[in-house]
Design brief:
This protein is globular. The protein is α+β, with helices and mostly antiparallel strands. The model is unreliable at 1-17 and 41-46 (pLDDT under 50). It has 5 helices and 7 strands, in the order ααααββαβββββ. Keywords: Lipoprotein.
């Protein structure tokens, strides 16, 4: 599931005017983001990270506030977009349970799509992205399974998984997960994604 269903126009100098520049197209992208974030909740259920032992999961040494949980993943996401110069990022944020669907602790999570530059081999491009991040303090881990040209990177307790969209080869996906440190009570909250695409306006 992606946040933007397709990028049809070439990317780069000399190509047609980007369709995303028109107000109507941006409205369609916003609508697609909302729908995709709703249905994209499936990836939360499938790929929730459970890296902490039970005791430390239930009693984190340094609990985080809602704001801290969000900042923990938003700032690295901005760093990734800036360092790797990911084109046209569209992203959503959610605070998700590390245990099940409802109970604390929670972690911040980001689901982001971006355009894969035209005329560049995808395998070369994603290796280059990983190498750029590694040069700035990110540590590369095992490649994620069933992810085309996937790369897993870690930094300061945040996990980033970056890969090509298997349905839309001209799109890349980046998913970021923070630490399971938020013990606030969100049991009765509606599960909802927040559009944070404006955080990356300087790169769009």
């Amino acid at each position: 599931m992606t946040l933007v269903r397709r990028v049809n126009r070439p990317i780069g100098d000399g190509g047609p005017v980007d369709w995303l520049s028109s107000p109507g197209a941006r409205a369609l992208v916003a609508a697609a983001l909302v729908m995709s974030l709703v249905f994209g909740g499936l990836f939360v259920s499938i790929d929730r990270l459970h890296s902490s032992p039970s005791n430390s999961l239930n009693h984190p040494a340094h609990p985080a506030s809602d704001s801290q949980s969000k900042t923990e993943v938003v700032e690295p996401a901005k760093q990734i977009v800036g360092l790797a110069r990911l084109p046209r990022p569209v992203a959503g944020y959610i605070l998700m349970s590390c245990k099940n669907h409802d109970d604390p602790p929670y972690q911040g999570a980001i689901y982001m799509t971006f355009a894969v530059p035209a005329g560049v081999r995808a395998d070369t491009y994603f290796r280059s992205v990983a190498a750029t991040l590694a040069a700035h303090g990110w540590h590369e881990g095992l490649e994620p399974t069933a992810r085309v040209y996937g790369k897993t990177l870690y930094k300061d307790g945040v996990t980033a998984i970056i890969y090509r969209d298997s349905d839309y080869p001209n799109l890349g996906i980046a998913r970021l997960y923070g630490q399971c440190r938020n013990m606030s009570n969100h049991r009765n909250d509606m599960t909802a994604w927040t559009d944070i695409s404006d955080q990356f306006g300087q790169v769009r």
